[in-house]
Amino acid sequence: MAFDITKELLENVSELISNQKDTALSELFLDVHHADIAEVLDDLSFDEAVYIIRLLDSETTAEVLLDVDDEVREKIFEQLTAKEIASEIDELDTDDAADVIAELPEERKQEVMQEIDDEEHAKEIVELLRYDENSAGGLMAKELVKVNENWTVLRCVKEMRAQAEEVTRVHSIYVIDDGGKLKGRLSLKDLLMASTRSKIADVYIPNVDFVNVNDAAEDVANVMRKYDLEAIPVVDELGVLVGRITIDDIVEVIKEEADKDYQLAAGITQDVEADDSILVLTKARLPWLFLGLVGGLSAASIMGLFEGAMAKNAVLFMFTPLIAAMAGNVGVQSSAIIVQGLANDGIKGSILKRLLKEISLAMVNGFFLAIFLFIFIWITKENIKLAFAISVSLFSVIIIAGLIGTSIPLFLNKRGIDPAIATGPFITTSNDIFGILIYFSIAKLIIGF
Amino acid sequence: MAFDITKELLENVSELISNQKDTALSELFLDVHHADIAEVLDDLSFDEAVYIIRLLDSETTAEVLLDVDDEVREKIFEQLTAKEIASEIDELDTDDAADVIAELPEERKQEVMQEIDDEEHAKEIVELLRYDENSAGGLMAKELVKVNENWTVLRCVKEMRAQAEEVTRVHSIYVIDDGGKLKGRLSLKDLLMASTRSKIADVYIPNVDFVNVNDAAEDVANVMRKYDLEAIPVVDELGVLVGRITIDDIVEVIKEEADKDYQLAAGITQDVEADDSILVLTKARLPWLFLGLVGGLSAASIMGLFEGAMAKNAVLFMFTPLIAAMAGNVGVQSSAIIVQGLANDGIKGSILKRLLKEISLAMVNGFFLAIFLFIFIWITKENIKLAFAISVSLFSVIIIAGLIGTSIPLFLNKRGIDPAIATGPFITTSNDIFGILIYFSIAKLIIGF
Question: Which domains can be identified in chain A, with CATH numbers?
Answer without folding.
Answer: 7-135 (1.25.60.10), 145-246 (3.10.580.10), 278-447 (1.10.357.20)
